[in-house]
């Protein structure tokens, strides 16, 4: 690895310091990457041929996925975005701002993971899930790309 490339990885890892120390599946819809995996996954997506009318700027990083093609991205302003891969289309129209920090996104993943472990959720369990999501970020249940229940 060249010195310039190593410096780029170090700078990226500094920006991605809120990611977990290793790749972890937090819930069915949220697998969080560690910094090294985020950098590696992002490099694969730097090729303009991969996208329709979009060039991925160096300040963007793919930080997670759902294992089925949808991805979680970290934007240049320190916010998390959801990328919906519907029909294989890879264009800017498929990105949705989540208005979450990486830490809030990870907290949401943990909350959803705990909810998914409940065999037969009651209305009270659903209400607690929604309250927890609201506590993380106002109106998060309505912004979340998947129905939490």
Describe this structure in words.
The chain is 38% helix and 15% strand. It is globular. The longest helix has 15 residues, at 102-116. It contains 5 helices and 6 strands; from the N terminus they run αββαββββααα. The chain has 149 residues and is an alpha+beta fold. Residues 1-7 have low confidence and may be disordered. The protein has helices spanning 3-15, 35-44, 102-116, 123-136, 140-143, and strands spanning 24-27, 30-32, 61-65, 71-74, 80-83, 95-97. It has a 6-stranded antiparallel β-sheet. The chain starts with a helix and ends in a 6-residue tail after the last helix.
Topology:
Blueprint: H1 3-15, E1 24-27, E2 30-32, H2 35-44, E3 61-65, E4 71-74, E5 80-83, E6 95-97, H3 102-116, H4 123-136, H5 140-143
Antiparallel strand pairs: 1-2, 2-3, 3-4, 4-5, 5-6
Helix pairs in contact: 3-4
Short synopsis of the structure:
Helices cover about 40% and strands about 15% of the residues. It is of the alpha+beta class and about 150 residues long. A hairpin with a 2-residue loop joins strand 1 (about 25) and strand 2 (about 30).
Descriptors for this entry?
149 residues, alpha+beta, six-stranded antiparallel beta sheet, 5 helices, globular, disordered N terminus
Q: Level of helix content?
A: 25-40%
Average pLDDT figure: 86
Radius of gyration: 16 Å
- N-to-C order of helices and strands: HEEHEEEEHHH
Strand order of the largest sheet: 1-2-3-4-5-6
Outline: globular
Poorly predicted tracts of residues? 1-7
How far do the termini sit from each other?
A: 45 Å
Portion of residues in beta strands equals 15-25%
Derived from helix and strand composition plus strand pairing, the structural class reads alpha+beta
Reported for the largest beta sheet, the result is: 6 strands, antiparallel
Number of helical elements: 5
Q: How many β-strand stretches?
A: 6
């Amino acid at each position: 690895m060249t010195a310039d490339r190593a410096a780029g990885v170090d700078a990226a890892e500094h920006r991605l310091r809120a990611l977990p120390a290793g790749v972890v599946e937090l819930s069915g819809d949220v697998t969080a990457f560690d910094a090294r995996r985020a950098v590696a996954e992002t490099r694969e997506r730097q090729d303009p041929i991969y996208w329709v009318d979009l060039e991925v700027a160096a300040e963007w990083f793919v930080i997670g996925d759902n294992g089925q093609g949808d991805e979680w991205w970290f934007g240049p302003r320190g916010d998390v975005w959801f990328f919906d891969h519907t029909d294989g289309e890879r264009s800017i129209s498929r990105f949705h701002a989540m208005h979450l920090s990486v830490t809030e996104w990870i907290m949401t993943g943990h909350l959803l993971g705990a909810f998914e472990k409940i065999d037969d959720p009651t209305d009270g369990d659903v209400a607690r899930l929604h309250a927890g999501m609201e506590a993380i970020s106002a109106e998060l249940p309505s912004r979340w790309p998947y129905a939490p229940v």
